[in-house]
Amino acid sequence: MNTQVVNQVKQYVAQRAIFIVLILLVIGIAIADPNFLAFSTLRDILQQSSTRAIIALGAAFILITGGVDLSAGRVVGLTAVVSASMLQIDEYANRFFPDLVQLWVAVPIFVGIVAGLAVGLVNGIIVAKLHVPPFIATLGTMVAVYGLNSIYFDTEPNQSQPIGGLRPDFTVIGSGYIDLGGGYSIPYIVLIAIFVALICWVVFNKTRLGKNMYAIGGNIQAAHVSGIHVARNLVVLYAIAGALYGLGGVLEAARTGGATNNYGNMYELDAIAACVVGGVSTAGGIGTVPGVMAGVLIFGVINYGLTFIGISPYWQLIIKGLIIVAAVAFDIRKYMAKK
What we know:
This protein is an all-alpha fold. The chain is built from 14 helices and two strands; from the N terminus they run H-H-H-H-H-H-H-E-E-H-H-H-H-H-H-H. The chain crosses the membrane at residues 12-32, 53-83, 103-128, 135-153, 185-204, 271-302, 314-332.
């Protein structure tokens, strides 16, 4: 009986390890500085993590299929620049498009998301139709997208100047709040991230596309045999991931109030790391939306919390690296045990 209880406890801890680590991190930082538990601190962490969460959810679609997408960060930079370039105030001295009329704010946002979707579509076609390994395919598009973005960013009259002077009706999306009274508020960008996460949860768990995604990642040959149109599903999944990167780029521009062609640099590695730490298997076929969100929050707590208590950024990198290696090692052990 005792052995059975011990096994049940081990299984419970293993299934919820990510959430236990997150709680322990918060407790540890709060012990060092109790002010960390203030509502304003939690709000700031959530606000800073919101765009990362959306990007990580996009990366999760690809990781679950057994692939990897290295183009995410550069897509974020492209869509941030494209949307920001069309949303500057008339009075700004160095407008990207001096003669552009003031567009309805939803139009540049839509253009940015579609640009991300287009890159994802190209990735999906290269992987699914040309049978190029995802790592190589997305490495190529990562470089190409950065070059394309840099050419756009360097056009006259901008000539590679940081894009600023963004309209308030756009930046409010990234920095505005819903006032709850009593000194409490919820950022709009957090609500957007929660809404996107809910949609992704529905896709993962309640749609045929989600079931096919897990089947492809679990065993692509079995997926073929069972009648799943693997190529079509991969193209759709890569396109969805690209659209999420695009949304993340647009929101990052709104949150920071500007954009350059270097926005999003290395975001793909943060997204992949958050997914892996959150339980998305590097072998494919395994992953959940709550796990991804918890992985993003862990890195958000590390970045914000350790800075909050005065720990050097270099130590933060070491801690993040150790967590990533431990998570991958744990995932590989589970995969080997399963085989």
